[in-house]
Amino acid sequence: MDSRDELAARLDACQKCSVCTAQCPVAKVNPHFIGPKGLGPDMERFRMGQIIQGETTLDDCSNCKTCELTCPSGVKITEMILNARRAARQAPNSNPLSLKLRLRGYVLGRAEYLGKLGVIWPSLTNQVLKIKLVRVALDRALSISESGPLPAYAKPLKLQGDKGEKLGASARKQVVYFPGCYTRYNEADTGRIMIKVLEHLGYKTIVPNFHCCGLPLEANGQFEQAHKNGLYNLELMRPYLEAGLPIITSCTSCGLTMKEDYPKLQTTSAQLIGTQTYDLFEFLWQLYEKGELPLDFQEVKASYGYHPPCHLKAQGIGTPALRILGLIPGVKIRNLDAGCCGLSGSYGFKAEKYDKAMKIGSTLFEAINVGAGRGDFQGMTTECGVCKVQIQHGTGLLTEHPVCILAKAYGLIN
Amino acid sequence: MREIDTQVVVIGGGATGVGILRDLSLRGIPALLLEQGDLAHGTSSRFHGLLHSGGRYVVKDDKAAQECIEENRILKRIAAHCIEDTSGWFVYLNGDDPNYLELWIKGCAQAGIPVKEVPLEEAFRLEPLLTRKAARVFEVPDATVDGFKLLWANVKSAEKYGGNYQTYCKVQSLWLEQGQVVGAYAEDLITGETIQVRSKIVVNAAGPWSSEIAAMSGFDVHIQKDKGALLVFNQRMFKRVINRLRTPGDGDIFVPHETVTIFGTTSQTVDLPDDHQVNEQDVTDLIEIGHNLAEEIEQQRVVRAFAGIRPLYESVDASDHEGRGVSRNFSLIDHEKKDGVRGLVSIVGGKLTTYRLMAEKVTDWVAAKLGVQTVCRTAEEPLQNELATEVWDKARQLLGVAAADKMMERLNEQAESVVEAIACQPLLGQYVCECEMVTQAEVLHALQDPSIHSLDDLRRQTRLGMGTCQGTYCTYRATPMIQERFGGWERTVQEYQILLSERWRGITPVLWGEQLRESELARALFLNVLNFKVEESEG
């Protein structure tokens, strides 16, 4: 079966039970949004009748994939919606989005180029982005919300080549790291800490010059560019994949893209990527199970609330970070599991979506505020960079990547 | 007893009947149509929804083929909102009869049906599910037509010109006086009242029931009731109508109809005009034959099976009584010539594609009898006026393209008030039936219509309950609205049961795979959550 048939078959699997819509974070806060079932499988039957939907309705979906996770029948709901978006964009007589929104899609889709620009002089960029007038201008010119929590830029992560070293089984232990744009340009510290942790475990980390994984491009309707990025990255990974090296990422959205979308690309390494990509903590848990994870932890006297990102859930690997952090003496951690943060990549940066995104996140913010207020925990932790940005924006509570806690336990940072 | 005076009584609210009512009304002849059930409850909705190009008949019956292509062109013009101009393919498979292919190509040329050969590679690209056994593919102007919309558009147009119709009104006997039919007696099935209608002429357009109507006065109209079973697939498997290029037989047409695909048919003579039961053997046979055109047919979800009765007229003895210029495709029986009684005409045979032509011939006959000179205008005058683009745009803005377009096609001239209601109260734009995207506003609007007497009527008018879930969710979601219209919980539950039983009847022959899961979910919902009781079913 080709992918069209596969989707058609999964469409048949929809039982119309509405579990997806009941769980959809966007539908919860927006009664006028028809929800994933409506936008996905319901509309799909009409789209097959050559009805082309407008892009604006399809745009309400934040691409968080909660629907696919909850569907008891395995219907690829988000994929249907994304495909419909693509079709809407390609339709000859479709009602085109305004130039402003197209331009915004171009900008928000290109976290990578923004990153490259931003890190030329990070402090200046950050100062400029803090100027109220600049944000107002961005809002007016590009409909990028003036209130949205645009992440700050920092000194970028250094690339590390393999230096012609021998790859594979006989060589020393190596992993390839896919940092993702957020870690690379906005928060390279997390990346550097992760590399230190892996080093502590005896792994050498290779960081090739990857492009953006493609997810923000797709979410902003830049399908062709996303496809190109996927092929470019796979080509870069090929020698490592063929040598059997694991590809590790600390970003849950990049991880999901590599696990779900890359295997569908038409290139040889696409067949390997699915089985060789790991979320960082998924990889660490595997080491633990094999008895290869050093347990020389120092006590860390700290308590955290944990937010599982939507795209981690969509990977279907549970919450390995929680399990690993649970091994550290002294660490108290509470899984809040209070739903989507609302930002969902770049969704919450959009002017017309900002309020909705904040509303979506309100359940989580409340859980955090209540928990922190009661003294259940002092800080927050989550794997996803933009979830972190949104949590800090919504609650003001310091939020860090779980690898930072692990690094403290190994005594690698203070 | 209620008494009504009119010029013409038309018996039967199928396509032919409503076509006649409209034609009479356009010519200024007062008429009343009597229908025992809801409009389109019989053959006019129980077919594959194909608007023939005539391609299917070119070899065997070139007259019928010519009529089809002419009517095809007329209907695309006058009933555009009921028709999706999908085009259709005739697919010649490896191993099919080459002689037939040759005759077919010649026949199309003779009948004036435009044919374009589609290169195989392009055919497979355009229709990925098409069998790889296809050897040659030809495109013809087939299309799909919605029987429900077509019928409603006809009666609404007739009403505008003074025509009347009454549903749930069953004719009990014809009123005869001295060798002349002068009207009919009917029972209003809703109120139980007897209605006496006096008229100059009675038209028997009752389709499979035509024999029964004629037999009321002892006349013999021999209709062969030919049951055809069809399968409804959950989604559109093809974008075009797919016919097999061979001598017409069972299971050789796939029709993309609205959101589904209808595949059929079978052919079996039955005794009763409402024998709509499909058995498992029909389904097995159809799926087996369907492999020839779509190899992956078994992987496709079937949501239900249904059957219709073709009222075939055994035309052997008809030739003596045939009306003027009527082809063998359908027959006009003048009972004065046949039985020596004046004022009664039966119109039998035919197909939905030629309903307008049949109506024209009947109305010509009636007009001649009544001395009315007005000419037929049904081939030129559209069934309804074009809706203002502002209303379309507004609806699309409020509901999105898919839901808006489908609603506008159904409501057309009445759409404006519904769109306005949604604009004032956006939550009225929420769907009651999500599978077919029927809004609360449309349901409320339909319930105002005096001809809606049941949930099943509502289904025919709005498509509520006709999608994937087959009424599992939309029926109970419609509760508050139904209860208000029909009064009382007991009646509402009764309506559920009627509708769900009918849905269930269509699902049972195809109870496997995803539809089985859906049915189990529906059972759990209605029996456990909503506390419905299981009724013993027959057989």
Q: How would you characterize the overall build of this protein?
A:
The complex is a heterodimer of chains A (414) and B (539). Chain A has 23 helices and eight strands. Chain A has 414 residues and is an alpha/beta fold. In chain A, helix 4 (35-47) packs across helix 7 and helix 21 (354-374) packs across helix 22. The longest helix of chain A is centred in the last third of the chain and has 21 residues, at 354-374. Chain A is globular, with a radius of gyration of 21 Å. In chain A, 51% of the residues are buried. The mean pLDDT of chain A is 89. Chain B is of the alpha+beta class and 539 residues long. Chain B has three domains: 2-43 and 148-222 and 314-370, FAD/NAD(P)-binding domain, CATH 3.50.50; 83-144 and 224-312, 2-Layer Sandwich (D-Amino Acid Oxidase, Chain A, domain 2), CATH 3.30.9; 430-529. Chain B is built from 18 helices and 24 strands. In chain B, the strands form five sheets. In chain B, strands 6, 7, 8, 15, 16, 17, 18, 19 and 20 form a nine-stranded mixed beta sheet that branches. In chain B, strands 10-3-2-14-22-21 form a six-stranded mixed beta sheet. In chain B, strands 1-13-12-11 form a four-stranded mixed beta sheet, with no helix packed on it. In chain B, helix 1 (15-26) packs parallel to helix 5 and helix 1 (15-26) packs across helix 9 (355-370). The longest helix of chain B is centred in the C-terminal third of the chain and has 19 residues, at 489-507. Classes of the chains: A alpha/beta (414), B alpha+beta (539). Chain A binds chain B through residues 2, 4-5, 8-9, 11-18, 31-32, 34, 37-38, 42-54, 57, 73, and chain B through 84, 128-129, 234-236, 239, 256, 258-260, 296, 299-301, 396, 400-402, 405-406, 426-427, 431, 434-435, 437, 467-469, 472-473, 514, 517-518, 521.
